[in-house]
Amino acid sequence: MDHSRPVSDLRALERRLDRLSALAETLHGEHGRVRERLSTVQDFLVLAPKARDTLEELSKALFGKILDEVEANLTHAIREILGQDRVVTTQREVKSNRLQIHFQIQNQGKEDEIEDIMTGQGGSVCNILSVGLRLIALSQLPEQNHRPFLVLDEQDCWLKPSLIPKFMKLINEIADKLSLQVLVISHHPLDLFAGAADRIFELRPDRELGAVVKRVK
């Protein structure tokens, strides 16, 4: 009778038991770590809505004063150039953790009448707001990293010729105030810029050279 087989079977079972015990201990430890991470995530999910709301309030508070000043400056520009009693306002909301700003135009005293800034006054409103926002943005950049220089390429394209002198006068005043140099490119008659531009150049076609630049002021 062979008694060695039961002994070898017992040893094999003992080794298997040892392996299963070690695996069970590892899985138990991993289970504990997973539960700990799950608890942390659950705590975060509970706090997330409150944190989001707090961030929204902080963002609005941080940029609120800046946007109030932007609204006032753009409203002044609209009234100075168009001579109309209109108000520039902003709608502010936080989406995907970012503050989004939507500009709109309202007639004074008629808050329910909203005008599309892209098409208002035949595009004149868009011209004015576009230039105003560029000047404001450039003034906020660090001077050591950016040159105080702005190019406006046909930013007066939708303005009536009669509005160009006012438009250029306001740009010149703001540029001087902010110590900015502005290059304006336009197809309007040059005499419309004489009262506000420091220097005026005219680009003329030339048969030999293709084009020549002539200073007229």
Can you offer a commentary on this structure?
The protein is α+β, with helices and mostly antiparallel strands. It has a domain at 143-217: P-loop containing nucleotide triphosphate hydrolases (Rossmann fold). Helices cover 51% and strands 22% of the residues. It is built from 3 helices and 7 strands. The strands form 3 sheets. The protein has a 3-stranded antiparallel β-sheet with strand order 1-2-3, covered by helices on one side. A two-stranded parallel ribbon has the order 4-5. Strand 2 and strand 3 (110-115) form a beta hairpin. Helix 1 crosses helix 2 and helix 2 packs parallel to helix 3. The radius of gyration is 34 Å and the shape is elongated. It starts with a helix and ends with a strand. The model has no long low-confidence stretch (mean pLDDT 83).
Give a brief description.
By secondary structure, this protein is of the alpha+beta class. It has helices at 4-82, 124-139, 164-178; strands spanning 86-95, 98-107, 110-115, 149-153, 181-185, 201-206, 210-215. It has a domain at 143-217: Rossmann fold (3-Layer(aba) Sandwich).
Helix and strand element order: HEEEHEHEEE
At CATH's second level, what is the architecture of the domain at 143-217? 3-Layer(aba) Sandwich
On the 0-100 scale, what is the average pLDDT?
Answer: 83
What fold name goes in the CATH topology slot of the domain at 143-217?
Rossmann fold
Separation of the first and last Cα atoms: 123 Å
Percent of sequence in beta strands? 15-25%
Structural class: alpha+beta
Q: Which sequence of strands runs across the widest sheet?
A: 1-2-3
Task: Sum up the overall morphology in one term.
Answer: elongated
CATH superfamily of the domain at 143-217: P-loop containing nucleotide triphosphate hydrolases
Largest sheet, in brief, is:
3 strands, antiparallel
Q: Which CATH class of the domain at 143-217?
A: Alpha Beta
Rg result: 34 Å
How many H/I helical runs? 3
Low-confidence stretches: none
Instruction: State the helicity in percent bands.
Output: 40-55%
Number of strands: 7
